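INFO  loader      accepted 1 record
INFO  loader      residues=58
INFO  predictor   begin
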Amino acid sequence: MLQEQILKGEIEYLRNLTSRADVGSDEVAAAREKLNNKVKGMKLDKAIEEHVHSVHVY
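INFO  predictor   done
INFO  writer      dumping tokens
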């Protein structure tokens, strides 16, 4: 799924960001928050899809 590939890229970006010395803790915290929001959004999308499929089954 495309969202999963994007998420993997964001995780890798965060890993690289945390290892760099020229990046401040504010930038790392912002990137981490952005990643957390994407994960929450993906979970919500998945829950909605499952609900829609379960409603249409009955």
